[in-house]
Amino acid sequence: MASTAVKLIDIAVNFTDGMFKGIYHGKQCHAADIPAVLARAWAAGVDRIIVTGGSLKESREALQIAETDGRLFCTVGVHPTRCGEFEESGDPEMHFQALLGLAIEGIEKGKVVAIGECGLDYDRLHFCPADVQKKYFERQFDLAEAVNLPMFLHMRAAGEDFCEIMSRNLYRFPRGVTHSFTDSAEDRDRLLSFENMFIGINGCSLKTKENLEILRGIPIERLMIETDSPYCDIRNTHAGSQYVKSVWPSKKKEKYEPDSMVKGRNEPCLVRQVLEVVAGCKGISDVEGLSRTLYHNTCRLFFPQDLDSSADAQLESGTTVQDS
What we know:
This protein is of the alpha/beta class. It has one domain: Metal-dependent hydrolases (TIM Barrel, Alpha-Beta Barrel), CATH 3.20.20. It is about 40% helix and about 15% strand. It has helices at about 35-45, 55-65, 85-90, 90-110, 130-145, 160-170, 185-190, 210-215, 270-280, 285-300, 310-320; strands at about 10-15, 25, 25-30, 45-50, 70-75, 110-120, 150-155, 175-180, 195-200, 225, 250, 260. Strands 1-4-5-6-7-8-9-10 form an eight-stranded parallel beta sheet, sandwiched between helices. A two-stranded antiparallel sheet has the order 2-3. A two-stranded parallel sheet has the order 11-12. It is globular.
C-alpha cells in the first residue's frame, strides 16, 4: 500500500448492500464487517464516505449507518430502477412526504448531504419502465428544491432524456453530480454544458481504452471519485488497471478474515486506486495535488460549510493541479 498523504472522499458506497452484511446471493458467508471495512478506508486516507440511498427503506438504513461515525454521511432518494415503489406504495404523495420527512430529519442530524440516487437507467427497463422513471425523476427535483440540497444522480444509456429533464430543472437545486459515469463522449459533453454539474468516476468508468479517452476530456475541476462499492471494482482486465499502484491482500469470501479484503467485493479504501488511474490517465504526476483538487470539488458540492474563505484561498492559490 502507498503512503496516506492523500485525503479522499468516496462519494458513493452502498453500505446497505447485503455483501457488507456478509450475505452473497442469499447465503451468509461471514459476519457483517463494516467496522473492518471502515478501518481500511481511514488507513488509506479516506476522510469521509457518503452512503447511498436508493429507496425509502434503503435511505432510512443509510441514515442509521451514517449516524454510527462522524465521517459518514448519506443521501435520500429513489434509484430509477426502483421508482415503481412510489406507485406500489398505494399513495405516491405519502411516499414522497416520507422521503421529505426523512431528508429533513437527516439534515437536522448533519448527515443527509444530497437527494438521490435518482435519475434514469434505460439499460435496466425490466426493473422499471421509462415513463415511470421519468415521472419520479421529475418528482425528486421537488424534494431537492424543498430542502435546498444538491442532487446525486444516475444516468445510464439515457443521456438525451436525462439532460432534457435536467435542463428544465437546473434552477431547482444548487449543484449535482452524475455518478458512475460510463456513457459516451457526447453524453459527457452534455453534462459538462451544465455549469453546476460534476461527473463521478469509478472502476466501471475505467474499463476500456474508450472510457479512458472520455475521462481525459473531463476537466479535473468538474470531477469526483468514488467506488460505488461493493460493485464497480477495477479489475486486472480493465484498461485503467495499468495505472493502479495501491493493493491490499484479499481472500475468497469462504475464507474470510477481518484483516483482508473479500476477493471481488469492492470497498472504500479502493477509491485510492481510482485516484491513481485518474492521475495516470491524465498524466498528472502530483497525485497529492490531484487528491486535494478532487477533495475541494467534493466539498464544494456536499460540504460547502467546510470551504471558508481561507481554505478556499489556500486551495485556489497553489494546492490544486491542472490537466496535463
